[in-house]
Amino acid sequence: MNKKVVIDLGNTLAKAAIFQEGKMHELQQFEATDPALIKWITAHEPLQSGIISSVREIPDQLLELFNNKAGFLVLNHETPLPFRLAYNSPKSLGPDRIALAATAFSRFPGKNVLVVDMGTCITYDFLRADGVYIGGAISPGIFMRFKAMNQFTSKLPLAAPIDSAPLTASDTISSLQSGVMHGVQAEIAGIIREYESIYEELTVLIGGGDNKYFDKRFKVNIFADANLVIEGLNVIVDFNESQ
């Protein structure tokens, strides 16, 4: 039975999943540098393959684990992919964004797909219908916006995201929440409209942990999923196993 481990190592958190016969059987979340992640991986031995995407330095023990196993990949721009990269600076392209494009390619072959991932940063990644990844955009995530207003002013407090922020706020905390939450929603809706004006048939995938604050608020052809990077990593490792 084919058993693989898939790891999405983010700036603060790591998601780790076990796939068997193409299906995800277990999903866990760890602090990015938590040694418990290594123990969790080794507890699932034997593993036939694995892949890791990291937007930060990979801890030595974790890197050693992947480098010493046949069939285990550390994703980068040189990893064989089922689609083509047409990015001007591929070395600087985040592996998480590559994985998001792989999800788009797998779910919607032959479609124009915009993937919006809401994490530490909000990323926009566009895969053209002919299977070519063009690029996209990066903007500050929700918590980054709150922290910036607190850190770069002398009096503004640190606010937190909420599910339903008032449009017209009546105090400082809710004013910060209104600005960030409505601002992010307007930004995403606006970028989607820009893509729709260029590509008549557009499919939108929205993922990332902060999508929970905006779920079902966008009136377009949108599919929401919190684990788009994990899904894309599994697509890439399956593609490499088939070569």
Describe this structure in words.
It is a single chain. It is built from six helices and eleven strands. It has helices at 36-42, 60-67, 95-107, 142-151, 172-198, 228-242, and strands at residues 3-9, 13-20, 23-31, 49-54, 72-74, 84-85, 112-118, 121-127, 132-140, 202-207, 222-224. It is α/β, with parallel strands linked by helices and 243 residues long. The protein has two domains: 1-74, Nucleotidyltransferase, domain 5 (2-Layer Sandwich); 83-243, 2-Layer Sandwich (Nucleotidyltransferase, domain 5). Helix content is 33%, strand content 28%. It has a six-stranded mixed β-sheet with strand order 6-9-8-7-10-11, with helices on both faces. Strands 3-2-1-4-5 form a five-stranded mixed β-sheet, with helices on both faces. The protein is globular, with a radius of gyration of 19 Å.
Rg over CA atoms = 19 Å
CATH architecture of the largest domain: 2-Layer Sandwich
Protein structure class? alpha/beta
Helix content: 25-40%
Question: In brief, what are we looking at here?
Answer:
With 243 residues, this protein is α/β, with parallel strands linked by helices.
Note the topology:
Layout: E1 3-9, E2 13-20, E3 23-31, H1 36-42, E4 49-54, H2 60-67, E5 72-74, E6 84-85, H3 95-107, E7 112-118, E8 121-127, E9 132-140, H4 142-151, H5 172-198, E10 202-207, E11 222-224, H6 228-242
Parallel strand pairs: 1-4, 4-5, 6-9, 7-10, 10-11
Antiparallel strand pairs: 1-2, 2-3, 7-8, 8-9
Helix pairs in contact: 3-6, 4-5
